[in-house]
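Hi V.,

You were right to ask for the full record rather than a summary. Here it is.
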Amino acid sequence: MRLISIVPNCLSIFRILISPLFVYILKYNLNLLAVLCLVLGALSDFFDGYLARKFNVVSQLGALLDPLSDKIFTNVVLWSIYMYFGQNVYVLIIALILSIRDLGLLIGSLFVIIKKYNTNMSPVFLSKICTTLIFTFSIYYLLFPESELIISYWGILCIVLITITALIYLYRFKKSK
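Predicted structure:
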């Protein structure tokens, strides 16, 4: 049981560690390997939370590490795809909005901790759907970059969901004051 208790945090750390590997792989046009790296990152995101809940090994470290590793990995993935795979406008807009939202969440979380506000800082369920959508969008884009129509609709959906989650987090923050 002791080993199981550290697995979720190890999976979160794994996601942070494969972020620079993803950049390197994509920089050298190893697209299928990049897809594999992305799939492994997405699976680690799913299994860290699943295992923590299933075996009741939720920890304060995990509560901080999991969303932080999600933010690092998703932002690295999107910016790397934009820089090294093709400067698609939807990838750029998704990366910009996601980075702004995540930076706002980081600053807001620090503010909440410093000011000791009683705020619900747990992720909203829609945010989990949004992350899954970003991962699947990224995988699809790496595999089928010429599918402009599907990529544009998928990209718009990602943009809308990121914006909605940002507004939900902003509402939570304003409500706590």
